[in-house]
Specification:
The chain is an alpha/beta fold and 449 residues long. It has helices at 70-76, 96-107, 122-131, 147-157, 182-199, 220-224, 271-276, 323-337, 362-374, 400-409, 439-446; strands at 4-10, 16-17, 33-39, 64-65, 80-81, 85-90, 113-117, 139-143, 161-165, 203-207, 227-233, 239-247, 255-261, 264-267, 286-293, 296-308, 316-319, 344-350, 382-384, 387-388, 394-395, 414-418, 433-436.
């Protein structure tokens, strides 16, 4: 029999120790070490794989299967790849199970699909399926948490797609620790990965997230899988964003936009039109800009409100934009433009519940703050795109032509862009472009008229 020994493992980062520690030296979290019985690995007597010469490998296109959802296919890089292991994380109740159930509805019309749930009974899944009008022609449901039993069912029915909801509820009998622990999550994910690669069955895993928004369990879980998707959204808004942060078969930072309704998730084919339909239009403190999410341009509205501080210390609040970035831009306005906001509360918001962290929205954000402070609106036909440095210069941004064309498509007539980007816009009429080099010039151009 293989030897067993006791280790203390941090449940946040997977750090191991021979004795209990009050504070983890890896992630510095307190009281996170739990004693687990770890079985030592038995040396395999099998034959190792032989090395293969790089030039002798014949390249073949990865066969992809459509999920039935254009937005999900976009985030995955074109569809599901055989033998891939995909991890989907998100807050509780955000719609992860709904998204996967709608996906397997399309896949099960032609191929056999196995949906494994460790959190719900088959009756509960059936109730949700009826609410979503899902027929599930060849969809098999399994309520099980034992990985050995799950593997036996997979070998028995040989499905074309497997969903495991969620990886934190599945346990392996060989590991003497509770389900959801670092050892269990790592071992179960490793076995599912080997099964996916050997049988070429794509496997989707649902992962819990911590209160900080990171995937629960060991960090190695994200390194093991082929694709990591985050399902984001605000409970106060109906819109959901599926974001790719890792993809071995496609581009990262792609997003898919959905709207949550009574009949499940609905795809939003053109998010820019959706966000622009809610814009203020001619109100002081509202400015439009165009951001890039992967290869997709999105026109969004940046809003700001500047008011006199009621108390001695002014408030700074940012929703949907980086708080530290807002603080930096306020310092630039104070030093380079002469807008003294030390006695004013400043609130910044991105309309529609969206979140953007790229610096290309700096110019729109600083214009919105100045517009609200001076109580002077910016014409609805103008859109501002550009990054701002600490010296007040306006820097060029990437993919400027794609951004400008998206803005004109939505009806904007004038784009204020960095002057260094004008050479890349030779196909755009000159009268529709205004190149600026610094913040003072940008604000004078945006607030005129």
């Amino acid at each position: 029999m293989a030897k067993t020994k006791s280790h203390f493992i941090c449940q946040h980062c997977g750090q191991e120790s021979l004795k209990w520690l009050g504070r983890c030296p890896g992630c510095e979290s307190w009281n996170s070490f739990v004693e687990e019985i770890v079985r030592e690995a038995v040396q395999s007597s099998g034959v190792a794989n032989s090395p293969v010469l790089l030039n002798s490998i014949a390249l073949t296109d990865e066969a992809r299967t459509s999920t039935g959802s254009f937005e999900l296919d976009r985030v995955l890089g074109g569809g599901i790849v055989k033998g891939s292991l995909v991890l989907i994380g998100g807050d509780p109740g955000i719609g992860k199970s709904t998204l996967l159930l709608q996906m397997v509805d399309s896949a099960s019309r032609n191929d056999l699909v196995l949906y494994v749930s460790g959190e719900e009974s088959v009756n509960q899944i059936k109730l949700r399926a009826d609410r979503l009008n899902i027929s599930g022609g060849k969809l098999f449901l399994l309520s099980e948490t034992n990985l050995t039993h799950i593997a036996d069912i997979i070998n028995q029915i040989k499905p074309k797609l497997v969903i495991v909801d969620s990886i934190q509820t599945v346990y392996c009998e060989d590991v003497q620790s509770a389900p959801g622990s670092v050892s269990q999550v790592r071992e179960c994910a490793s076995r599912l990965m080997r099964m996916a690669k050997e049988s070429e069955i794509p496997v989707f895993l649902v992962g819990h997230v911590t209160k900080e928004g990171a995937l629960a369990g060991p960090r190695v879980l994200e390194h093991m899988v082929d694709t990591v998707l985050y399902f984001e959204g605000d409970r106060n808004h109906t819109y959901r964003i599926l974001r790719s942060v890792k993809n071995r078969f496609g581009a990262t930072n792609e997003i898919g936009v959905f709207a949550m309704g009574g009949n499940g998730l609905k795809e939003i084919a053109n998010p820019s039109e959706l966000f622009m339909s809610m814009r203020s239009g001619g109100t002081a403190g509202a400015v439009s800009t165009c951001t890039m999410e992967g290869t997709r341009p999105l026109v969004v509205e940046v809003q700001s409100l500047v008011s006199s501080a009621t108390f001695g210390t002014p408030r700074r609040m940012a929703t949907g934009v980086d708080y530290n970035r807002v603080s930096m831009l306020l310092a630039v306005l104070d030093k380079r433009v002469g807008l003294h906001l030390s006695q004013h509360d400043v609130f910044a918001n991105l309309a529609g519940g969206f979140r953007v962290e790229e610096p290309a929205i700096d110019l729109a954000l600083i214009a919105a703050i100045a517009s609200s402070f001076r109580d002077k609106s910016i014409l609805p036909g103008k859109i501002l795109i550009g990054e701002i440095g600490l010296t007040g210069e306006v820097r060029g941004v990437s993919q400027i032509e794609t951004r400008v064309k998206e803005a004109f498509k939505l009806g904007f007539t004038q784009c204020i862009v960095p002057k260094s980007n004008l050479e890349q816009l030779s196909s755009i009429p000159k009268h529709a472009l205004i190149g600026v080099t610094n913040v003072q010039q940008a604000l004078a151009t945006a607030l005129e008229g």
